[in-house]
Amino acid sequence: MIEAVIFDMDGVIIDSEPMWEIAEIEIFKELGIEMTVDMCMEMKGRKIDEVVLHWYNIFKWNKISVNEVVEKIISKMQELISEKGEAMTGLYEILDYFKSKNLKIGLASSSKMELIDNVVDKLKIREYFNVIHSAEYEKAGKPEPDVYLRTAKKIGFKVENIIAIEDSYLGIISAKKAGMRTIAIPAENVYTDEKFLIADFKIKQLNDIFKLDIFKN
Predict the structure, then answer these.
(1) The CATH number of the domain covering residues in 4-15+87-215
(2) Which of 44, 53, 84, 196 is the 20 to 30 A CA-CA neighbour of 217?
(3) Helix H or strand E encompassing 29
């Protein structure tokens, strides 16, 4: 029996993945590093601190610190979200649907809390969530299960009674490691990738959740 739903944020409730690509490519270019979309996709789902440290270990720049690069990317993301942030198709309808089913709703994101706050306020959806949690407060980010386990604990239900909605492969692994069932909403360009078969369900947009039998009882 499903008693709670936990959303990932980037690429699930807000169309922010292209913004992450813009921010990372722009800031790394300032360091003389030609970041590509494929390189961004390689790290999709991880905490930005881990992303920047990963590339530092490869490129070893010496102009500014890892933390300064992180802050520059976050600052650019704040700007892009404020200017261009839009809800994913079907978000408001599915949030209303879950509320009507008396399900608890959580948000478990790899993004820092300041970005999460920006998004939920920009989209005016804070009131829907019983728990909002960031992996920045956990020792390990996705694909480790920490952020999902902590969010489940705060919601107060067993993990087997919670389903997670994710767009990234690493996010799905994180939720599965936590013991949750998963709904994958992969980006269009990777929708047919066989690695997403590890999810319990795969859909193209949030509205497709209405077709899933799991929520009909």
Answers:
(1) 3.40.50.1000
(2) 196
(3) helix 17-30
Token pair for 164:
């997670």
What is the tens place of the pLDDT at every residue in 113-166?
999 999 999 999 999 999 999 999 999 999 999 999 999 999 999 999 999 999
Q: For tokens 């590093």, name the residue.
A: 33
CATH code, residues 17-84: 1.10.150.240
- Interatomic CA distance for residues 165 and 94, integer angstroms: 12
Token readout for 22 is 């813009």
Enter the tokens of residue 140. Answer: 């390990």
pLDDT tens string 25-47? 999 999 999 999 999 988 988 99
Look at residue 132 and give its three-state secondary structure.
Answer: strand
The structural domains of the chain, with segments of one domain joined by +, span 4-15+87-215, 17-84
